[in-house]
């Protein structure tokens, strides 16, 4: 199993058996760092940290050279520099990542129309229907790797398997710049020795709960009594893990993905204690989230906030709304209410607001009256003004002159870090 820095890399030999496979998971290698090297070849081979140079931001990504020092995404840049003092810090360029991503996705779509992007730098491909045109799944995977490197100038790793879950695990094990093929008949052998932490969808808390009961590998899940799994992670996740441990994953490649969440975060130039300022900042972030919801014709039924204190401890809270909405005022009020329920009053370095459990706008049943009608008209007028004159021309009055302490550090990938 790979370690995120290339150690433990496992790849298949040429001509590997791909019987029973149909799914490719293609993942760019250290994508943000790779794009930096693409644009500035003098950076090749150097330990790179993608993030703001002020030390108060978090690491968006790192080259494999930096990862070998222990540098990881979401780590404070200051900590990353202590681990790897020789690293070069490179500012993220999100527009550039999107441009390169479009080139990569176009290559995928030239092989098969069944492409499911997961983020700017990874996607699933179902190649079952194009075998006569391009060859076996393993052959297609090799062609994809060759074309990405020759036409875009960066490398990728590919997992080839019978299911999405196993393909994703295989691509991780093959990193960087490798390909791992898991024929259907070898699925259980591939899965059994791997850590439960390698499973797609198992977070740190679930992994700790499983490990506390001696369930450390996927094979252990396969052998564990269902009652033990239920107590560890709950019946719903237990059922899903049992299925995945058996190599069963009925999920198909979805060519039209529904965005699962929309969020914005702000990292401040200095730690903030001013509660009115922080409440206003939550409303400002909520307005940005709501504007994106309206542009995409979505509504949210759950609002979440993230609060990071000066000691880097991070708290998250979420609240289900009475009715779905794309109104910034309503999202902001929910965010402020959750914020006030946090008892800790230490200085804050980051705030975030996220809309979750999205659904198409207008999907909820109409009530007898619309409590948000006035706000909806106001925010609709703001949308019109922004469309005509740009986003910098209009804001809430309470936000004017409140820029002190604000140092934008919106996370890449829109929903996380690489």
3D structure, described in words:
The strands form three sheets. Strands 5-6-1-7-8 form a five-stranded mixed β-sheet. Helices cover 38% and strands 20% of the residues. The protein contains 15 helices and 13 strands. Helix 11 (226-233) crosses helix 12 and helix 13 (275-296) runs antiparallel to helix 14. It has 418 residues and is α+β, with helices and mostly antiparallel strands. The longest helix is centred in the C-terminal third of the chain and has 22 residues, at 275-296. Among the domains are: 33-94, 3-Layer(aba) Sandwich (MutS, DNA mismatch repair protein, domain I); 192-245, 5' to 3' exonuclease, C-terminal subdomain (DNA polymerase, domain 1); 261-407, DNA polymerase, Y-family, little finger domain (Dna Ligase, domain 1, 2-Layer Sandwich).
């Amino acid at each position: 199993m790979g370690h995120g820095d290339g150690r433990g890399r496992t790849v298949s030999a040429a001509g590997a058996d791909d019987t029973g496979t149909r799914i490719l998971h293609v993942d760019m290698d250290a994508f943000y760092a790779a794009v930096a090297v693409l644009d500035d070849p003098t950076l090749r081979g150097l330990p790179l940290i993608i993030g703001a140079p002020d030390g108060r931001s978090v690491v968006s990504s790192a080259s494999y050279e930096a990862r070998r020092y222990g540098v990881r995404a979401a780590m404070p840049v200051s900590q990353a520099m202590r681990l790897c003092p020789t690293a070069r810090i490179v500012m993220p360029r999100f527009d550039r990542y999107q441009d390169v991503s479009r080139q990569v996705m176009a290559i995928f779509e030239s092989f098969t129309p069944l492409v499911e992007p997961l983020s700017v730098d990874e996607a699933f491909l179902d190649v079952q229907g194009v075998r006569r045109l391009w060859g076996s799944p393993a052959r297609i995977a090799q062609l994809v790797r060759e074309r990405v490197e020759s036409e875009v100038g960066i490398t990728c790793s590919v997992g080839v398997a019978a299911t999405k879950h196993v393909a994703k695990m295989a691509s991780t094990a093959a990193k960087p710049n490798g390909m791992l093929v898991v024929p259907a008949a070898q699925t259980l052998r591939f899965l059994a020795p791997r850590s439960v932490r390698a499973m797609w969808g198992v977070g740190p808390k679930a992994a700790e709960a499983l490990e506390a009961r001696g369930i450390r590998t996927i094979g252990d899940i396969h052998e564990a009594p269902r009652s033990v799994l239920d107590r560890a992670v709950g019946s719903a996740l237990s059922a899903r893990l049992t299925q995945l441990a058996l190599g069963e994953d009925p999920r198909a490649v979805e060519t039209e993905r529904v965005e699962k969440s929309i969020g914005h975060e702000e990292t401040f130039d200095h730690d903030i204690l001013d509660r009115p300022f922080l409440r206003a900042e939550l409303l400002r972030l909520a307005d940005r989230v709501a504007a994106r919801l309206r542009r995409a014709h979505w509504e949210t039924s759950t609002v979440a906030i993230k609060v990071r204190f000066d000691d880097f401890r991070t708290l998250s809270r979420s609240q289900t709304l009475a009715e779905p909405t794309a109104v910034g005022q309503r999202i902001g009020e929910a965010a402020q209410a959750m914020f006030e329920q946090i008892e800790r009053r230490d200085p804050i370095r980051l705030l975030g607001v996220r809309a979750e459990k999205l659904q198409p706008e207008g999907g909820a049943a109409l009530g007898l009256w619309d409590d948000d009608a006035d706000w909806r008209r106001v925010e609709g007028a703001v949308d019109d003004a922004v469309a005509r004159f740009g986003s910098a021309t209009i804001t809430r009055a309470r936000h004017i002159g409140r820029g002190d302490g604000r140092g934008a550090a919106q996370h890449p990938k829109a929903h996380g870090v690489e």
